[in-house]
Write a structure and sequence with these properties.
The structure is a single chain. The chain contains five helices and two strands, in the order βαααααβ. With 230 residues, the chain is mainly alpha-helical. The chain has one domain: Ferritin, CATH 1.20.1260. The radius of gyration is 31 Å and the shape is rod-shaped. It has a two-stranded antiparallel sheet. The protein is 68% helix and 2% strand.
């Protein structure tokens, strides 16, 4: 005897509701296998769940597209900050800048190695330190570093920072809707379960093969165990 299993994807959940609703809408009232209460619940659930899923996919696509642009900003900021630090170290080797002044940048304990900029958070932290450090050193009479200038570094850093915060907003919006989808799945699964229960109950007094065929018309999905004949 085959067994039924509720849908395990959102697309399958939506399909299950649509099949049941379409079958019910095209069936005479006297021959309906599901109650009006459950049918109405199915229609409400379908509309709400489809809307949530559509909204999630829209937000996710926006996030993915924005991320492609953001990655370019990350690359530029990382390149300019890294290059600036390397030029700073070279200036110290040429004794154009005193090594003690590395304290302005928070680089006094790095053994003149470029800081790890592999994560967005590290890039955010070190970018600000480098910009603040250079501005402080120059304000005390130091000669500005050029190629790249701190002004150019600041521009690239600002673009990265703006993109970083924008991506965070996109991620939060997408996650919020994804959580709503996940939460509402329980309601959808309950409605599908109720539909299938009523459908099977209404056809329980007819032969097995005819009963299974009839139930499938309402979207009930059956699986055969290994060794069973389908």
């Amino acid at each position: 005897m085959p067994y039924r299993r509720l849908p395990n994807t959102d697309a399958a959940r939506i399909k299950a509701l649509k099949v049941a609703i379409e079958k019910a809408d095209n069936t005479d009232f006297q021959e309906l296998q599901i109650s009006t209460k459950v049918l109405n619940a199915a229609k409400v659930s379908l509309q709400h769940f489809e809307g949530l899923c559509s909204r999630y996919h829209q937000l996710y696509e926006i996030q993915v597209k924005a991320n492609k642009t953001f990655l370019g900003k990350v690359k530029n900021a990382k390149m300019y900050i890294s290059h600036f630090v390397q030029v700073l170290y070279m200036s110290i080797l040429r004794e154009e800048i005193k090594e003690k002044q590395l304290e302005f940048y928070g680089l006094e304990n790095t053994n003149q190695i470029v800081p790890d900029l592999s994560s967005n958070e590290q890039l955010m932290e070190w970018g600000q330190k480098i910009i603040n450090g250079e501005n402080k050193r120059v304000s005390q009479g130091g000669v500005p570093i050029y190629n790249p200038s701190i002004a150019k570094v600041s521009v690239m850093y600002s673009l990265f920072k703006e993109g970083y915060h924008t991506q965070k907003l996109h991620q939060k919006a997408t996650q919020r809707v994804m959580d709503e989808v996940a939460k509402y799945r329980e309601t959808v699964d309950k409605v599908i379960f109720d539909i299938w229960e009523e459908v099977e109950k209404s056809s329980s007094n007819i032969p097995v093969e005819k009963r299974l065929e009839r139930n499938r018309e309402y979207g009930v999905v059956y699986y055969y165990r290994k060794g069973e004949i389908s």
